[in-house]
Amino acid sequence: MSIKYLISFSIVIIILIISLVFNNKYNFISNNYNDIVKKYNIIRSNNFYSCLSQLSDDTQNIRLYYKYIDLIHLNEKSDNMYFKSKISIKINLFYNDPSLNNIYKLCSYAKKRNIFIWISALYKTTLDDEYRIYKKIRQSYNNIGITLSCSHSSVSKKVDDILKFNGNIRLVKGLYKGNITNDNQIKQIFITNAKKLCKSSNYQCICTHDFTILTNLELVNKYIELSFYFKNINYVIQNLVKYNINISNVSMYMSHGNKLLSLFNSNIKIPYYYKKKLYIVK
Question: What letter does residue 149 receive in the DSSP assignment?
């Protein structure tokens, strides 16, 4: 057996192993829309909702958001936009439209179908744009909220300001890189602001897989939503029962895009589940 053959064979085996592991860890990302729909149906069969998004470099772009809205509208007939699946948009896909006309059209299309939209956190350089756009559109549409990451020092003030005008927040513990890198500090910021959302009388969303945090929150807000990644659906089902958390509004996040390319793209903010091995969001 030649050395060249051994090297080629070894490379194939390594690629297969990496693919299997990677597909399992990041199975909430798919570049196949039919796969997204299949997972959406699995989520609905477990009486959960979906949060449907796409990676920021996804070539599907704005068209995909309309497909998501149609999918939800076809399958979920509730008139309550808080208790049904939602979509999450990346504002960089709208940067070629300074008038924001395309976002307004999307919000209008979703509003007519009672579907809620999140403006997703993206880069630390887009924080001001995300907040500015959210506040502007919120004046015309109440079916839009903003995702805030606790890895940014600006999050607490934004939470306070948004709650004052009865806005809606999707709070994530440390999904995107920011100017805070200390895990304990991020965790404390998350807990502090999650408590504020729990006391709110409006629809809010809390995103963490840390059930030790969730069990110590007073989940008294009847509109509160707990959101997780699709890959953890079985873990979530088990722990909701284990910790006796009775929340009727639970969602699973999924995203369209090429997960393998995203792994090596420093501009794409892949979650840090396995940051000791793959800490991409430093």
Answer: E
Please state the pTM of the whole predicted model. Answer: 0.83
Give the whole-angstrom CA distance, residue 78 versus residue 134.
25
At residue 26, the 3 state secondary structure works out as: coil
Q: What is the pLDDT of residues 20-58, one digit of tens each?
A: 444 444 456 777 889 999 999 999 999 999 999 987 655
Is the CATH number 3.40.80.10 carried by domain 25-278?
A: no
CA distances from 208 to 51, 186, 263 (A): 14, 12, 21
**Domain spans of the chain?**
25-278
Q: What is the pLDDT of residue 125?
A: 74
Give the residues across from 206 on adjacent strands.
171, 226
Which tokens belong to 123? 């880069």
DSSP-derived secondary structure letter, 120 = P
Task: Report residue 41: phi and psi, to 5°.
Answer: -65, -35
